[in-house]
Please model this.
Amino acid sequence: MKEFTAFSPGHITGLFQICDEAEEPLLKGSRGAGVSITRGVITKIRIEKAPKTSFEIRINGHGVKSAKVSECVINALLPVAEGNYRILVDHKVNVPIGSGFGSSGAGALSLALALNEAFRCGLSHVEAAQVVHIAEIKCKTGLGTVIAETFGGLEIREKPGAPGVGEVKHIPIDDDYVVACLKFGPMSTKEALTNERLRQRINDLGGKLVDELIARPKPANFMNFSRSFAEGVGLISKRMRKALEEADGKGITCSMTMFGECLFSLVRGDKAEELLEIFRRHTLSEDNIIVAEIDHEGARLL
Model:
């Protein structure tokens, strides 16, 4: 069997505005801001000729009955392949699933890059990413994750849409920043994006804060506006609140991932250990603490 491997960074959205009124999926998306991290998803695919086309998807070594976004990507790219294939997909996910780390987008994006190479589809990097954006829109698992993970960095999504359609601006950031996170539990992106009251709160606040960040694109402003957004949207749980307030007392601004019951902060190296000590006091397991550097490269073949 031939093997092909690709990586996509995970991604944390701090604030956003829903922009899904357009009929064309490539034009749908979000304006917003977030950060790509060096922890993400490595996807290895193995293919061989077969009498009939079939595929199997594993996540961290376990077979899954449903991986909707990845399945959507496979079905979109299969018609380009010549002949029938047996396809084995292995997603190695190194971020929490369902907690606001862009895992579905990262899995599908790395899969699309690997399939594009395996089947010699001839798609550009951006065109392969557009296939994934459409899949996420259809599955209601994300709006701006794919364009962010495609290009990496600390980004502002100034114009909604898929990679090649939407517009991304990077916020300059020093190398000594890390992303520190404390996970409490999952939250459904699909449920959040289909809740009309929540959508209204998101859009009332999100657009204004994105405009302010575009005018003042600094890492500290990203964290401050993310916090304002989280407070305004009203999804901060009691256990998140306790850790937030302790960090506030030490002059460290945290916010919540969109969407997950999870805190995050962009901190310089000298403040990171102080924040991690706070996080340790609010969890029973070190496994709930995630530390990563910023990924500036974006999704890529390995």
User: Anything to note?
Assistant: The mean pLDDT is 96.
